[in-house]
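Why should sequence recovery work at all? Because a backbone constrains its sequence more than one might expect. Tight turns favour small or flexible residues, buried strands favour hydrophobic ones, and helices have their own preferences. The token representation captures these environments compactly. In the example below, the structure is given first.
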């Protein structure tokens, strides 16, 4: 038998495929293969066959083994991954390994493991009344099976029934065990609820079906307009104010879509931050939801991925990477809080999951819903110019009104730990009425600067161009760099002049918490930031306590801005937003507007009317005035006009080259070389830089960036494709770290 030549994509940062030999006929395209590379074995994917190779036949190696019988991905997902690699100019093999679950890249079988189901026998049922009272375990196990429905071993174990006990039942002839393919039972007549096939997240949710609302006329109209066009690519922006019932709309749409046998993909920003949303989906669709996010083990993730591929689950709810989930019969994609930055990956393959969801909708010919109370300017632009349906929800679903915003000028006012007296009084008024108060401050730690009162020395990170943040909680004081993560102990005196007079300057969440918990000592307070929510269930515990009304004051960072619903929250205080108003990023105003609108949206969502106080030193800043007097939509229109006038995204398209090096010169020289390739290419292209990044040194490396800004996207991409080979093979490139970020979001 003659040998065939197979092209293999390998998870390497190289923009090419590799040729391997196989004896006999080649494996199908799209299966995983294990191949020798250097002195180790790598897992890759066969992407085609070649007639001849550039490499000397004698040097070609043989494939070690073929891991799958059939392609691991449906055709549509291949197309998406291919398109992703092309659009982001990213090595194809590395794109593939970002898109596929880790477990598959490590060689795990791409098949669902059969599940053991236990069922009680007639003898078992008869035994129940006659059991001696001390056989507690046996009784418990028999009771769990008493309904006579086959029950998965997984769910029995979750109810603390041990395998050893089940085996005893089997020995006595009281129960039987059968191994079934996952999903096969689902099609049987058995009631689904008994099976708990889909341990939908790692936690045991114990979800009870909740009562559903009858839709408001606005909601109904949105649902109808989406459902009117479900058999084609139909991009929809659901632009609904905070609390307008967007989630309820998604649930309704999904209900219809899944009733026709199709599946739904729901992308959400960060699952850990919005436990309520997941629970709402799980309780509305018991046993039909599986989640995909970074909190899962590799095995769990693969399991959920395989269930979606097999069509065993109807709904996948997941974060960014879930956009690469294979489906048997995808019917709709929903991106909730589409403006959220977490949809953009900030390293490796720097993809936007929101943007890819639109590619996906095109490929699969299904509707794609982008939902937000504060749509990104990109999406508003698309809605206007690219045939999106732009659907509005202008009222809160509960009938509540949007909170009134007050701008509190703190310039020249006496401040008590950052608060003016009138503001503290206002907070007290709300608390006294048994309502809740949220204090938002977008900075964790105690204080952002530690300063010597005598000589003005400041505690700086040795490895970054940044001040160290002082942390002070529970007798544990330390300094931490929020850029490289490094810790330092707190000096007792100034290292420069030896004065013992060190001042904590500025406010962070810890300081605000400390102050408020003594000032309002009778009202329970909870701080919510990355430091208090490290424990897995912490966020969901805090949110539950706040929802029940046990916690009266919440202090926290932007984690609190995300989709939470606290019925008794009536006052939102926004402290120290000033930094966000004056950032050098051209998107700073858009981001500040989104953040303030989202945080404000936590107030007055149902029972009590809400109000918002923004405390600032810049009370006459135009953005604050607009936030107070106009809707987000009106404000966004103004910001869009500014982008149009200055020719910035979404009216142009950007790509950012970043470079870091230990020696300052290396990164700079590299980017100068890149810059020279693009300069004078065409009139539509502007080449900006190289300039030092705002944090000009991080973890010991100097950082520079070069921005390409073009009014012609196709031309920009064509130029990048043309010059990348030169850039990659540049001698300077090998000395440094560099990356290319298409449609960059983070410009600092
Ligand atoms: P959003 O996702 O737009 O922030 P939600 O879907 O979370 O809004 O709805 C906000 C609140 O209003 C929730 O408590 C929800 O239960 C409630 N709600 C949603 N739709 C309705 C409705 N049609 N009637 C009554 N209450 C509703
Ligand atoms: Zn000093
Ligand atoms: Zn640092």
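From this structural description, the recovered sequence reads:
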């Amino acid at each position: 038998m003659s040998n065939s030549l197979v092209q293999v994509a390998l998870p390497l940062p190289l923009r090419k495929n590799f040729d391997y030999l196989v004896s006999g006929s080649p494996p199908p395209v799209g299966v995983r293969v294990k191949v020798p590379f250097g002195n180790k074995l790598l897992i890759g994917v066969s992407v085609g066959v070649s007639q001849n190779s550039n490499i000397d036949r004698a040097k070609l190696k043989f494939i070690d083994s073929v891991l799958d019988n059939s392609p691991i991905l449906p055709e549509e997902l291949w197309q998406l991954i291919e398109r992703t690699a092309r659009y982001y100019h990213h090595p194809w093999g590395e794109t593939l390994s970002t898109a596929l679950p880790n477990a598959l890249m490590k060689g795990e079988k791409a098949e669902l493991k059969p599940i053991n189901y236990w069922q009680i026998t007639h003898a078992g049922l008869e035994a129940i009344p006659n059991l001696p009272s001390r056989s507690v375990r046996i009784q418990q196990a028999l009771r769990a099976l008493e309904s006579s429905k086959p029950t998965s071993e997984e769910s029995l174990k979750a109810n603390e029934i041990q395998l050893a006990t089940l085996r005893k039942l089997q020995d006595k002839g009281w129960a039987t065990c059968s191994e079934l393919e996952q999903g096969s039972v689902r099609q049987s007549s058995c009631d689904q609820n008994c099976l708990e096939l889909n341990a939908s997240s790692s936690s045991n949710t114990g979800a009870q079906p909740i009562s559903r609302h009858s839709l408001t006329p606005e909601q109904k109209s949105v649902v109808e307009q989406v459902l009117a066009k479900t058999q084609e690519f139909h991009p929809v922006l659901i632009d609904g104010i905070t609390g307008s019932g967007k989630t309820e709309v998604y649930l309704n749409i999904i209900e219809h879509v899944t009733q026709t046998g199709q599946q739904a993909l729901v992308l959400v920003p960060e699952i850990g931050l919005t436990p309520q949303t997941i629970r709402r989906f799980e309780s509305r669709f018991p046993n039909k939801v599986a989640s995909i996010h970074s909190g899962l083990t590799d095995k769990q993730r693969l399991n959920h991925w395989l269930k979606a591929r097999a069509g065993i689950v109807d709904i996948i709810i997941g974060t960014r990477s879930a956009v690469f989930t294979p489906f048997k019969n995808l019917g709709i994609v929903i991106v909730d809080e589409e403006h959220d930055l977490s949809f953009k990956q900030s390293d490796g393959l720097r993809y936007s999951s929101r943007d890819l969801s639109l590619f996906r909708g095109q490929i699969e010919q299904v509707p794609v819903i982008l939902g937000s109370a504060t749509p990104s300017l990109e999406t508003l632009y698309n809605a206007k110019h690219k045939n999106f349906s732009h659907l509005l929800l202008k009222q809160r679903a509960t009938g509540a009104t949007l909170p009134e915003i007050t701008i509190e000028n703190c310039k020249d006012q006496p401040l008590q730990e950052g608060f003016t007296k009138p503001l503290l009084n206002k907070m007290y008024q709300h608390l006294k009425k048994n309502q809740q108060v949220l204090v938002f401050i977008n900075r964790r730690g105690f204080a952002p600067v530690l300063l010597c009162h005598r000589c003005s020395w400041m505690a700086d990170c040795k490895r970054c161009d940044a001040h160290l943040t002082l942390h002070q909680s529970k007798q544990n004081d330390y300094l931490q760099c929020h850029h490289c993560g490094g810790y330092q102990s707190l000096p007792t005196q100034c290292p420069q002049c030896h004065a013992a007079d060190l001042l904590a300057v500025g406010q962070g969440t810890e300081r605000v918490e400390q102050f408020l918990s003594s000032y309002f000592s009778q009202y329970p307070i909870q701080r919510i930031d990355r430091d208090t929510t490290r424990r897995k269930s912490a966020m969901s515990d805090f949110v539950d306590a706040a929802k029940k009304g046990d916690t009266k004051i919440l202090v926290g960072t932007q984690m609190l801005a995300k989709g939470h619903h606290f019925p008794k929250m009536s006052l939102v205080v926004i402290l120290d937003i000033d930094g966000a108003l004056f950032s050098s990023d051209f998107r700073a105003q858009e981001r500040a507007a989104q953040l303030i609108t989202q945080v404000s949206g936590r107030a007055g969502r149902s029972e009590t009317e809400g109000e918002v106080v923004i405390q600032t030193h810049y009370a006459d800043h135009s953005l604050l005035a607009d936030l107070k007097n106009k809707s987000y939509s009106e404000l966004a229109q103004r910001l869009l006009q500014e982008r149009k006038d200055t020719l910035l995204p979404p009216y142009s398209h950007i790509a950012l080259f970043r470079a870091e090096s230990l020696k300052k010169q290396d990164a700079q020289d590299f980017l100068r070389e890149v810059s020279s390739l693009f300069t004078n290419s065409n009139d539509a292209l502007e080449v900006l830089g190289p300039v030092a990044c705002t944090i000009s040194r991080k973890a010991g490396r100097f950082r520079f960036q070069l921005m390409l800004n073009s009014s012609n996207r196709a031309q920009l991409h064509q130029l990048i494709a043309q010059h990348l080979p030169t850039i990659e093979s540049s001698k300077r490139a090998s000395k440094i770290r560099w990356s290319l970020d298409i449609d960059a979001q983070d410009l600092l």
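A few observations help interpret the result. The first helix runs from residue 75 to 87.
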